[in-house]
Amino acid sequence: MQLEKKDIGKLIDFNFRKLEALQNPAPAKILTPWESVLEEANRPDGISFPDSWNLKGITMRPSLLTILGAYSGIGKSTTMLNIIRHLFVKGKKALVFSHEMTPGQLWARFAGIDMSMEGRGSHTIYEIFEFAKKQDDYLKSLIEEASKYITVIDSTGWTAGQITAEFENYILENDEPDMVAIDYLQIIRPDMESVPKDKRLQVMSIMEELTGYAKKTSSVWLVVAQTNRDAAKREDGKAPSLTAFQESAAIEQNAGLAITLGRAVSDGDTLSNTMNIRIAKNRFGRTGASDVNLDPVTGAIEPPLRGLE
After folding, report:
1. Spatial separation of the C-alpha atoms in residues 128 and 250, rounded to whole Å
2. Residue 22 pLDDT
3. Model pTM?
């Protein structure tokens, strides 16, 4: 894969800063046990899920990775966008790295979810694009307003190092975002310095780099990930456990919170509109699951069928 000049520049800049940090390390911050507890207590509050999801008491904590996993087509990117829309409604900021969708595709899907939630009908992404061609006032004002809180970066082909370097660039001109969202883990490119041939080792290395960096920030880091194919075959529609990730050991070790999604399959390949959201791991609280309604056209998550179990 050939890098663009701007990406090469970012990679060089990031590696230069890493080298400089190694040559001139910052003095170690030594805290007493009580000071370390106070430091943790004074971090920003975690981000809760929308009330309608019935996941009360469960939060995505700052400085930790939250892993959101599902098999292809179940709704992992859709769920990420619902969470980002929830932040927008609350006036919180998100920095989104999109390895899969173009910014235009992501914004169109975001708009479809918002319009559905606001009672403006269920519109496909293609209908959203048609509205854009017609300079629809509501759509334009929605995206212009949302862009004050949400920054979307096309990170196709980027490494974890480039993501953290871009985060550094972002906070030069802005406060730290409430959330950093990355879509998705398995297509983050390994750093060129050391590229293990085993994909699981590559993902583990990427997760360790993101985990180490996230600890230095006050943001929630939401990382979308793909589960294995077997996780999509559950006829009961229940979200899988952590073992559904091929990189389950890395996720078990590095994630503060791990969420999996499930939907029942009927009549061949038809997915149910009921989605099971499972808190498969929670380092600082309870686990459980909730069933919610998923708009099959827009992906908007509507009020739940069943609350946290």
Report:
1. 38
2. 47
3. 0.86
